[in-house]
Amino acid sequence: MSIYILCLVLFCIGLYCVLRKRNIIKIIIGLGIVEYAVNLFFVLIGYQRYGRAPILAKEQKILNMVDPLPQALVLTAIVIGLAVTVFMVAIAIRLYEKYGTFDITKIKRLKG
């Protein structure tokens, strides 16, 4: 149970970075932390103590097998999260080239 609480704490730290920070790079890092917290939560859902890999051979009984669906979802989410992170960094670089700052309050004040 304590691992789920630590996962929630990690999520809250990332959410704090997204909501309270004004630097675009820190916001992107906060979104990465949130993503990793959600991925960790999905992996923990499929975890079983002393579980074995979900690979079956002939004449094997299914005993204490780990659920493979959350693992597959997390692998997909990692790839999608990487692409979204690269896209956010590319937008941040373009904003820096145009406005000369990563501070979103200054970018809001500038027009054009």
Characterization of this structure:
The chain has one domain: Orthogonal Bundle (Helix Hairpins), CATH 1.10.287.3510. It contains 4 helices and no strands. It is mostly helical and 112 residues long. Helices cover 71% and strands 0% of the residues.
Q: Which second-level CATH architecture applies?
A: Orthogonal Bundle
The share of residues in helices is over 70%
How much is the radius of gyration in Å?
20 Å
Helix count? 4
Compile the SSE list and pairings.
Blueprint: H1 2-20, H2 24-45, H3 68-99, H4 104-109
Short description:
By secondary structure, this protein is an all-alpha fold.
Features:
4 helices
